[in-house]
Amino acid sequence: MLNREIKWYFPETEEEAVAVKRENVDTLYHAGGTGILRTKSQKIKGLIDLSALDLNYIKKEGNTIRIGATSTYSQICKTSLTEASLQMLKGAVSRAGSTLLRNRITMGGSLIDAPYWSDLFSTLLCLGAHLTYRRLDLTVETCTVKEFLDRRLKKENVLIREVILPVKEDLIFFVRRFTRVFFDYPVFNLAFCAKRVKKKGGEYAIGEPAIFVTGVKRFYRELTEAEEFINNNIVDSRLIEECMKHVDAEFTPDRNFGAEYKLLMLKSLFKDGLEELLPNFIKTGDQ
Amino acid sequence: MKKYRHVKYSEQKIDAISLATGEALFTDDFTKPDMLYLAVLRSPHAFARIRELDDSPARELDGVVEVFSHKNVPRVMFTTAGQGYPEPSPYDKALFDTLVRFAGDEVAIVAAETEEIAREALNLIRVDYEILTPLLDYSKALNEDAPIVHPEKDAKAMIPVPFHPEKNLAAEVNVEVGNFERAYKNSSGKVEATFTTPITSHCPIEPHTAMAYMDEMARLVIISSTQVPFHVRRIVSRILDIPPGKIRVIKPRIGGGFGAKQEIIVEPFVALTTWRTGRPSRLRLSRKEVFTSTRTRHGFTITMKAGFEPEDGKINALSMEALENTGAYGTHSLTVLSNSASKTLPLLNKIENIVFKGKAVYSNLPVAGAYRGYGATQGYFAYGQLIDMVIGESGGDPVEYYLKWCIKAGEGSPIFRAIGEGTEGVEMTLDTVGLPECLKKGADVFRWQEKRNRYSGEFNSGRRKKKGVGLVCMMQGSAIPKIDMASAYMKMNEDGSFNLKVGATDIGTGSDTILAQIAAEVLDTSPDKFIVHSSDTDHTPFDTGAYASSTTYLSGSAVKKCAEEILKQIKKVGSEILEVPEKELDIRDGMVFVSDEPHRMIGYDEICTYAMYQRSQFQIQAFASHVADKSPPPFAAHFAEIEVDTETGLIRVLDYVAVTDCGTPINPVLAEGQVEGALINGISYALIEDYHFNEKGALLNNRFSRYKIFSAMDIPPVRVILVDSEPDPTGPFGAKSIAEIAINGPAPAIANAFAHATGKRLYKAPFTPERVLSALTSK
Amino acid sequence: MNTLFTVNGRKVRLSLHPGQTLLRVLRDNGYTEVKCGCEEGECGSCTVLLDGEAVPSCQILAMSVRNREITTVKGLMDMDGTSVIPEAFAETGAVQCGFCTPGMVLSSYALLKGNPAPSEEEIKLALDGNICRCTGYIKIIEAVKLAAVRMGKK
User: Fold this and answer.
1) Which of A36, A51, A100 sits opposite C56 (nearest CB)?
2) How far apart are the C-alpha atoms of B555 and B478, rounded to whole Å?
3) Co-location of A64 and A146 in the same domain
4) What is the average pLDDT score of chain B?
5) Would the CB atoms of A97 and C55 count as touching at under 8 Å?
6) In the listed set A166, A187, A218, which residue is the last one of a domain according to the structure?
7) By CB neighbour count within 10 A (0-12 exposed, 13-18 middle, 19+ buried), where does A96 fall?
8) Which stretches in chain B have pLDDT values below 50?
9) Does C108 touch chain A (CB under 8 A)?
10) Of the residues B139, B357, B385, C50, which has the fewest C-beta atoms closer than 10 A?
């Protein structure tokens, strides 16, 4: 439990929420609360509950999917929208934690908390997702998830508003996580997405691939070499074998697995994922 | 076979609805006004001497009522092992000591008005530790220069057994039958291997909890999540110097035990607090404390050798050398060690030359204790694989091999007499052995031959994913013969219902239901006519408790005897009312009737009412105790089919068939449930469970997010079969035990399947992918 | 302090500290049917329904849900007048020690409300956060299947 004297605030607008935050040190924004409880921090003096804010939605707007910060993983899994990028995100968060936790973990909380075992980031990075947040001075900023991770901004001072996924045509993707048991915190999480580009002669090739892995040193890594190697290529078993030579990531060994093994497993899951995509590259003829 | 009316029937567990609707009460659900909450200060060091302990700042904190430590609690040596008296476990522990022996050992407790204050106060106790070099590698425990974990002079063994704390030796067992060395030398086939098993946790979902209060007659009442209420009373009485008659121990519903709650860990603290302060108190351990500071499964290193005839695999000589890590204290060290041999070595009883050398050693790691399987789990990991290696070398089929060489009905084994529970065992010829039936049934259902042939070429195929099948056979025991005692008391009510009071402790197994079924079978009335009350030291008769696979077999026998006595009384009254000699009476559905004139009958309700109110009045009531002369083993054959990903080292269990002979299953669904639970625990033991320590001996994976156990998503397909075996003549309606045996199978069965699939052996459990990969590249 | 909550369909005033989890607050106020097994969201014995969704009450700060419908296993009985799920658990032998069972029952209920005819895989997924060491889950899965059939017939 947290400090017994903790103070709760229940703002109804973003402006009110930010004002409370600005005026009270050691006060945090609260969505699902799972991340806050894990810290067991007795330093927290106040919590600003965001549930009354209008941040619980998943909607399509133009060429984007907008996911409000207080949307839970379960809500994402249950949405009826069928855009491929959302399907990919569903795939990622539908395996995170457990059913009980997915009913409580929110998009916004995960972005702030960003634990190394998060199931969210590799996919968001792959998709080139954006997010918007409000700073203490009330200004709203938009940046990519990558910029958000790279920027040295004090995360607890920002109020995440929403995550924006691009709607991508002809998206092919896979997400893989490595765990000991099903309900576990992934050793690493791998996401792949690309465009399926139709070539002359009815063949398909990979276009604009994005490959990200989390759970590595320095949180995430983009497998740029593999991306470059695979780009514009037709995926077949030979290419998959070759591609593995271009997969590299730096892992930290832990009590469960050595760094070398993690890399081996990364390659193996990457290979499995690509193999699963093979049917997408069956020549359909030029119509 | 005899048709039963109430046993061999899947009666619904009598407390199931109450549990499923949240009505049933567990220890932590009881409350009293004015309660004190306890928190335990634990050693952060694996091995340290307390130079000075200052509790005054903690005492000054508002809301703190008492602080207990070695400074104000007299030193009494005891063992936390909830065993019969005198315990085979050494008295090597004081409630509080100036020497702390593992990271998590108790240093002091705080009693405060709230849980939060108690926890806060822990930070205010100032302890000056002299940090000592810990003994973290138990394989070095017997080295000359090893740190001595128990240098104190007052540690002692309660029975005449080897106990040498000055050498870190907590227990030793040496047994030889025939002449191993000579027979081994003369054998042309030889195999030898060393097997290692991990330290693991029971993980009952209910953490260890106890509560105490003084009743209106100034007696100490303890409510506890225990498997052994009577041992709790005896041990608490001794530690705190309170007469047993002044203590009452109540066992409410228990949220799983598996051996973890056969230890007296939390009860002394609440008893001490309440006895000294007069106020109710409660201690509920956190999950972290359950992992770190309750009990674990003993880690073993076992080296086995077999000398055999290569033609038919006949084993001439078998040796088992076991080194057991008992951790910081020696609870169950001797008996678990003994069981690693006594529950394995008799299985192939034609082996004439056997030697067992076992040593249990101390280390500065968490304390090991009783855990479902109790040494047999570790023993079968080695034995089950070594026998498979012999079979492999001699080119036979495991099913045929076991059928040929396994112990049969009417046979015994010199091991039964040679190894008991610390001292000598009990000679025994087995009345029933259902292992052949298990093997035949299992091979058929599993399609053993077909799969074995299909995968026979896998090991040298170039395939990435290789499949294989493996088999292991096992036995366990049913209670501890001539040591454990159970008793039952029963009285009749005027509606034909019965109060059945037993010391047998239902910890979730369903024993209350099973015991009601046994009584119902004797009295031929519905099981719901029995109001079962289990485990209250004031109101139920003595029973050693829920351990050693004993409740159905031992307590069941006591209940059966008791019900038979009740039946005599019922017939006596019936005879008086019906004016017919007793021997001409029969019973059916809660009625007594005249055998030749079935229409002349009288109900149990009328019989009881008559006995209470009419003539020659008395209370129809009876009691009975039971001690077993034998410990008839249940048998099992387990078949595993696995797939090994040779690239990643991941093992997937594709099919698992467990066939068990438990004599008559009193309640088949509950019996299956015992096997299923033990199996899944066993599979996760084989694949993922293990304690990880840092270099200073602190447990790293001390919570469920790090120490993972299987969820519903992880279970492989398993099929559980109970063979329709011979009823055991010594068990109630032919029953033998079933609770433990199944946990022993998965690790050796999967390892044997791995050998079939890959031609390599897994000598160390759990089979993590990295260990698998290194096994695959080994010679 | 005291705060108004909605538990099992009734407005109740619960005493609490603002830093406490829902689990602590419920248990301290007598809702002992909500069990405490790990207090880190890993075991599921503290499961309650929050507006019909199964959640781990140990991972929720009580104050944040004071306007939501909280249902414990006892409330499930009152609310629907149904004991189909507990009965199915009892009949199939899915209850051993029973400590995890209230949580299992609530997770099963949440599943069946949204998906009256779940596949075995969907049942397992719905229960992935409720751990049990006694049963090996086999009879629990059987129980949920049985409950699904019975609830479908009602």
Assistant:
1) A100
2) 11
3) yes
4) 97
5) no
6) A166
7) buried
8) none
9) no
10) B139
